[in-house]
């Protein structure tokens, strides 16, 4: 027994632990659906490594509860970022007090204790103080500083829901084939809604993020209209505030992050495969080996996509663009066949230049393109997402005219200015790291709700035809018994 203990002590002390862990997932209060942190590897002399020294298959990553050393029910993933750092992500299926992280990296044992209560995303345990929540999510470090939101709210200093609903009845609810909207009420942190329209399936996206947020914080009491369609709606002389996923220069909707990036945030490592980390965690050709051409794959959602493919036939040395499917312009099918096979976005980055064209509205893939290591050529467009306002042409991307008439010349410019092109790519990647990570997406939602709620002047009413939106506990994963919540003791006034 003593002998075993001595061996054990020797084996621990003989390992020189060089590698360092850093990142928000080492703190309990950084509550995002999938927590993440990084490992920086070092060589034996204490120098940072800038290449992979370990295959992820050989790295061990365990999570245990400090109190009883039992393994914690979780999903874990390690990714090699190919620069001497590794990304560690974990989704908890139970809440834990004091979490022990153990990593075996080469011959190093690395340990860290996440102190405090670490709540699972699936558990109901809202916190009252929003300022504390924002701080713990490090949202103030985002350079977005909600400039889009400020712009969106300029017209709406006082929000009267009676007026909005009356107008919406007349303009939208009467046309269920054209419009899909939900009237949401949040009161005492419970979510109610009534939806209007024939195609209201996308309410699952707005429900999901509101529910997820309500499990983490006490949301402000609020009443609003959520547009479930692609097109922004608020377009007349006396506009009403409608919350939408996409904005345009002709409309006055209040913009949330798209359902696409929000879903990727909530369902990371679960139901979605593409998330904001995916472009860093897959291996791409290094810049000098990439094909120096403009690349595009996608559907025929707008006329310029067809024109781009025509342009690529004319300039095959500069552009590789093909449609993968046709739906809107089927009558012109013969010109574009055979369609290109679908390829995952990570393969797009075998090419240096990524051409970003509108879809039916803004193309929701832009966050991922920016996160990747290609130079973005973005079509000028009147449609935008919540973060476009903070993207700066020539700093984060190369702007191209809506009709693509300057595309060839700009690709040629990029080929002639390879160093500058790479600088732009690096800045775009940094932009996504500072503004489009899961914490930023959640914070932006809450900021929209908070700012909107402040402006409501009508009393908040749950009408009798509204439905309570329920938390869905996936019993195979989360058991209510595993959702201890010390905060609830202080929340007695709220009926759970
Ligand atoms: C990695 O570090 C070495 C030594 O510091 C340096 O010479 C090399 O250029 C670096 N490689 C990359 C890809 O940054
Ligand atoms: C919320 O937290 C902040 C920062 O910790 C603190 O300054 C503030 O007083 C708190 N607000 C309330 C209402 O407790
Ligand atoms: C896509 O288009 C380019 C240029 O028009 C062509 O050379 C290429 O073969 C096409 N690729 C596929 C997969 O269809």
From TrEMBL:
Gene3D superfamilies linked to this entry: Immunoglobulins
Signal sequence segment: 1-17
Superkingdom assignment: Eukaryota
Gene Ontology CC annotation, any one: endomembrane system
Keyword Signal included in the entry's annotation: yes
A Pfam family hit: Glyco_transf_90
UniProt entry tagged with the keyword Signal: yes
InterPro entries: CAP10, Ig-like_fold, O-Glucosyltr/Glycosyltrsf_90
Name of protein: Glycosyl transferase CAP10 domain-containing protein
């Amino acid at each position: 027994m003593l002998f075993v203990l001595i061996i054990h002590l020797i084996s621990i002390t003989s390992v020189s632990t060089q590698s360092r862990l850093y990142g928000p997932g080492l703190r309990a209060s950084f509550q995002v659906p999938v927590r993440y942190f990084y490992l920086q590897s070092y060589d034996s002399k204490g120098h940072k490594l800038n290449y992979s020294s370990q295959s992820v298959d050989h790295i061990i990553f365990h999570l245990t509860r400090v109190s009883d050393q039992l393994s914690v029910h979780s999903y874990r993933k390690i990714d090699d970022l190919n620069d001497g750092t590794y990304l560690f992500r974990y989704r908890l299926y139970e809440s834990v007090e004091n979490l022990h992280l153990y990593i075996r990296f080469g011959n190093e044992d690395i340990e860290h204790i996440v102190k405090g209560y670490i709540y699972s995303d699936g558990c109901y345990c809202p916190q009252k103080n929003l300022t504390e929540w924002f701080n713990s999510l490090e949202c103030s470090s985002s350079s977005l500083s909600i400039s889009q939101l400020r712009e969106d709210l300029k017209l709406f200093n006082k929000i009267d829901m009676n007026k909005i609903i009356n107008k919406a009845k007349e303009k939208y609810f009467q046309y269920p084939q054209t419009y899909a909207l939900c009237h949401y009420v949040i009161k005492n942190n419970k979510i109610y809604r009534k939806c209007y329209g024939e195609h209201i399936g996308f309410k699952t996206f707005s429900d999901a993020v509101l529910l997820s947020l309500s499990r983490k914080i006490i949301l402000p009491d609020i009443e609003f209209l959520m547009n479930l369609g692609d097109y922004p709606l608020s377009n007349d002389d006396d506009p009403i505030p409608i919350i939408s996923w996409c904005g345009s220069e002709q409309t006055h909707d209040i913009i949330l992050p798209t359902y696409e990036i929000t879903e990727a945030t909530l369902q990371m490592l679960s139901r979605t495969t593409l998330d904001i980390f995916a472009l860093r965690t897959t291996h791409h050709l290094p810049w000098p080996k990439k094909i120096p051409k403009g690349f595009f794959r996608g559907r025929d959602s707008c006329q310029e996509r067809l024109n781009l493919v025509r342009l690529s036939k004319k300039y095959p040395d500069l552009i590789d663009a093909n449609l993968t499917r046709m739906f809107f312009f089927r009558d012109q099918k013969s010109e574009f066949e055979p369609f290109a096979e679908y390829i995952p976005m990570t393969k797009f980055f075998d090419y240096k230049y990524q051409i970003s064209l509108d879809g039916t509205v803004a193309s929701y893939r832009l966050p991922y393109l920016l996160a990747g290591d290609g130079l973005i050529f973005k079509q000028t467009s009147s449609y935008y997402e919540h973060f476009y306002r903070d993207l700066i042409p020539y700093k984060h991307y190369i702007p191209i005219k809506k009709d693509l008439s300057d595309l060839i010349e700009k690709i040629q410019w990029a080929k002639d200015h390879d160093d500058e092109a790479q600088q732009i790519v690096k800045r775009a990647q940094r932009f996504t790291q500072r503004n489009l990570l899961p914490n930023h997406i959640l914070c932006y939602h809450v900021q929209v709700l908070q700012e909107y709620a402040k402006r409501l002047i009508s009393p908040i009413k749950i009408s009798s035809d509204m439905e309570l939106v329920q938390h869905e506990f996936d019993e195979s994963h989360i058991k209510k018994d595993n959702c201890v919540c010390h905060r609830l003791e202080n929340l007695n006034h709220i009926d759970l």
